[in-house]
Amino acid sequence: MTLQVLYFAWLRERIGLPREEIETRAQTVAELVAELRTREPRYDAAFADMAAVRVALDQELAGMDAPLAGVREVAFFPPMTGG
Amino acid sequence: MTLQVLYFAWLRERIGLPREEIETRAQTVAELVAELRTREPRYDAAFADMAAVRVALDQELAGMDAPLAGVREVAFFPPMTGG
Amino acid sequence: MSVRVQREAFDYGRECAGFERAAAASGAGAVVTFCGIVRDLPGGGLRHMEIEHYPGMTERALGAIEAEARQRWALDAALIVHRYGSLAPGETIMMVATAAPHRADAFDAAAFLMDYLKSRAPFWKKETGPEGAAWVAARTEDEAALERWSDAAARRGDGPGGA
Amino acid sequence: MSVRVQREAFDYGRECAGFERAAAASGAGAVVTFCGIVRDLPGGGLRHMEIEHYPGMTERALGAIEAEARQRWALDAALIVHRYGSLAPGETIMMVATAAPHRADAFDAAAFLMDYLKSRAPFWKKETGPEGAAWVAARTEDEAALERWSDAAARRGDGPGGA
CA C86 to CA C69: how far, in whole Å? Predict the structure, then answer.
């Protein structure tokens, strides 16, 4: 499965890029995060505190245990601060 | 005691004038109202339903049992509808 | 902090612009404005609305309501403008504006100003339509709206929010 | 009903004016507007605030929040404008506006839009000051503010008020 993975705010800064294409067999967001953390220290650092990370699947907010089947775009970001 | 007595909205219309000077010995608003009602039918009609009448003494909202000592201006009007 | 009672029409957009610029200059982070507009009668045909007021008491009452709002909330600025005289359907009757560091204070203070102004400021409205003229009756909801500021006010003021 | 996400500055006063005129034409009796302004740092010296967003999701999220507000309250109109990019202290970040027959709906809907927009629309703020740049942390108050719309919302919506 090929995913477009996006990073925003300090997640983007820590990982060092705004988006990338990722080939994965992860079944859930949590599995994808675990896989990313094994890649390089910058990913491990970015996802060290998951209480401070939010995720959207195809531009809808989701939980960390949400399944990735059929998803094309995954975005990770800190809690939002609009307004 | 000489009072300036003001009427607003439908009280003004029923009584037929916006203000008048009244010489009275009434001790309270309620006594003043009772006195006015004995004057003429238009006063009696205007004050027939006291649940629909509000009073201000020297431009501050007051109760019907408020004393008139020291008061110069008494205003009668229906519930307010600002905004 | 400002209260105006006037016969003349005013420009709501221009008032909002001026209020926001002054609020920004004083360090506010949140501005709330409200305006009331003359609505047509349910069946249509409103010719005009006449707003009577009590000169002298009106300014005192609005000033006291505004002072109370400033005491309850941390406001950078507040404004009340209210018209009297004859207004056509669609005309702006009045407005309030509040500015505060955070949004909860600005929202609560504006709602408070409106609730008090509705039932405690000496204005009376008379509508003239196809069936003649009639005084607008006070709404029991408006009187009830005041109650939420009695003891719940402190809780809400300290409650959630922030601009 | 309108949502705009833009880099360019907008004129709050002019938006208020246009919104109110359209609301009056559609028979609204009450208009509430809110705007957020870039505040300086507590110690001063804010150089600029950078607002990052998630193009595509931002519009969807704001559209969904506005649709939810329209479902909960009897609104004649609603508007959300939100900027992104670099803003100076005192600049207007965003605004919401609501119009309804009565004031309680306009006030509640505007507060609801703000509460949801704060914590559910994908914007992130970064402040650059004398000590460098730092991401603005989410406020626990803002998350808590959402709760009041869960079951209390129905009560408040049917509660006191009326323009």
Answer: 29
Given its phi and psi angles, is residue A57 left (phi above 0), alpha (psi -120 to 50 degrees) or beta? beta
**Complex-level ipTM:** 0.93
Model confidence pLDDT, tens digit, residues A22-75: 999 999 999 999 999 999 999 999 999 999 999 999 999 999 999 999 999 999
Show the low-confidence residues of chain D (pLDDT under 70): 1, 151-163
Options 3.30.450.20, 1.10.620.20, 3.30.70.1400, 3.10.20.30; CATH for B2-77 is 3.10.20.30
Q: With 0-12 CB in 10 A as exposed, 13-18 as middle and 19+ as buried, what is B80?
A: buried
Backbone torsions φ then ψ of D110, nearest 5 degrees: -65, -40
Single out the residue of D93, D10, C88 nearest to residue D18, CA to CA. Answer: D10
- Does A78 sit within 8 Å of D54, measured CB to CB? no
Structural domain boundaries in chain D: 2-154
Q: What is the DSSP letter of C18?
A: H
For A61, name the nearest residue in chain D, comparing CA atoms only. D120
The CA distance from C30 to the nearest CA of chain B, in Å, is: 22
Tally of CB atoms within 10 A around B9: 24
Collect all residues of chain A within an 8 Å Cβ-Cβ radius of residue D118.
80-83
Asked if A18 is an interface residue toward chain D (Cβ–Cβ < 8 A), one would say no
Question: Is B81's CB within 8 Å of C118's CB?
Answer: yes
Class of domain C2-154: alpha beta
Which pTM was predicted? 0.93
Contact assessment for residue C51 and residue C124, using Cβ atoms and an 8 Å cutoff: yes
Looking up tokens 């709206």 gives: C145
So where are chain A's domains? 2-77
Using DSSP bridges, classify how beta strands B2-7 and A2-7 pair: parallel, antiparallel or unpaired. Answer: unpaired
Are D31 and C34 a contacting pair at CB < 8 A?
A: yes
The three-state secondary structure class of B6 is: strand
B neighbour chains, 3+ CB pairs within 8 Å: C
φ/ψ of C9, rounded to 5, equals -65, 155
pLDDT digits (tens, 9 = 90+) for D74-116: 999 999 999 999 999 999 999 999 999 999 999 999 999 999 9
CB B25 within 8 A of CB B1: yes
How many angstroms separate the Cα of B78 from the Cα of each of B37, C19, C32, C62, D132? 17, 33, 31, 18, 61
